Amino acid sequence: MTVQQLKDKIAANSAAWHETEDEKVRDALHQANVALYGQLDAQTGSTSGFDSDTGRWSSSEPGTGSYQAMGAPAVRDLSDQVRRRQKAATDSAIAGLERAKASSLAALDAEKAALPGIYTAAKNRTAAQNEIERKNTAAWASDKGLSSGAAGQIALSQSVAAQNDLNDLELQETAARKDIDRRKSQMELDYAMAVAEAEAEGDYALADALYKEASRFDAAQRQQWLDTEEMARDVYETARENVTAEAQRRAQEAADAYKKEQDALGWAFKLEERDYDRAQDAWERQRKESQDAWERQRDLVSENLRRQSLYNTSRATQLRLAQDLADHGDFSGYKGLGYSQSQIDAMTGLWQKYMAEKGK
Questions:
Q1: Which of 39, 163, 198, 267 has the most CB within a 10 Å radius?
Q2: Considering only CA atoms, which of 42, 56, 34, 31 is closest in space to residue 1?
């Protein structure tokens, strides 16, 4: 190696020494620099020394004064930054879902709050129209000289028709309320599934990013190991070429330091590989649990929709049956549709009165 290459490797080892807290790794890096400074002294004729109080090396080169090794950036594991960035992305996605949910809930609540006013106005219009028609019919019957019985039958028919219109409006308002409640329930389910999906996608993206970072970090460490191996080999070759006892001794020290460093870094790599495998297994279990939960939620939504469809079909059938019975004077079928007994009795009384008048 050239003098500059030796200085660069010394600086890199110094920076790595300050980055780690593993005493075995620090000792290996120090021994490597001992060998490198020996090679540097042999090539430049300088004299190098280590100050244990300050933890720094210094060298004096003939004719150039003194210099000190400069620090260099060490390989850094960016896993924490990857986790923070992915968490921020997931949190942002969930916050967007929360804002959309709040906006939808507000719109549905406003729609539900407006229902009483809409249907009250419709009922008022129906009642007013019925009153107008009743007066017009009475005036018409009077002009035509119809009997009070005939006029009463016409008025009764109008009253029944008006009551039916009011009942239809009641049913429409109730149906509208239930539809809004159903949409709110569906929206809650959709929100829960969207959040679960966002979290699952975030976990997958995090695992993928961590895997890539682990691969990059591993490649950088391997390159460091290769550089250290090259450094130890160069030191050994230089010592052999010098054919001095001191050079041979330093070469052996460098080889020992290299073995110690390889053992320490190799063990650290095995621990990282084990931890990564465990993290992958944990992520896979979590992903499977999230997928199972999502599928259960989807099945629940499908079952709710199926039951709602069956309920709507059954209610329509019940309404038709009640109307068929009412055509024959039996209004008991309306009880299952939510009508009170007093309302049913009132309709029965009107029907009986109508039939009595009709039979005269």
A1: 39
A2: 42
State the Cα–Cα distance between residues 37 and 108, nearest whole angstrom. 77
Q: What is the mean pLDDT of residues 164-185?
A: 83
- Taking the C-alpha atoms of residue 33 and residue 201, their distance in angstroms, rounded to an integer, is 47
pLDDT at 95: 87
Does the pLDDT of residue 348 top 80, yes or no?
Answer: yes
Report d(CA 152, CA 141) in Å as an integer. 10
Per the DSSP assignment, residues forming a β-bridge with 50 are 57
3-state secondary structure at position 88: helix
Chain CA centroid to CA 49, Å? 58
More confident residue, 309 or 325: 325
Which of 32-63 are b and which e, b meaning 16 or more Cβ less than 10 Å from the residue's Cβ? bbbbbbbbbbbebebebeeeeeeeebebebee
Query: For 310, which DSSP code?
Result: H
- Those residues whose C-beta lies under 8 Å from the C-beta of residue 161, and which sit 6 or more positions away, are 130
User: Is residue 231 within 8 Å of 12, Cβ to Cβ?
Assistant: no
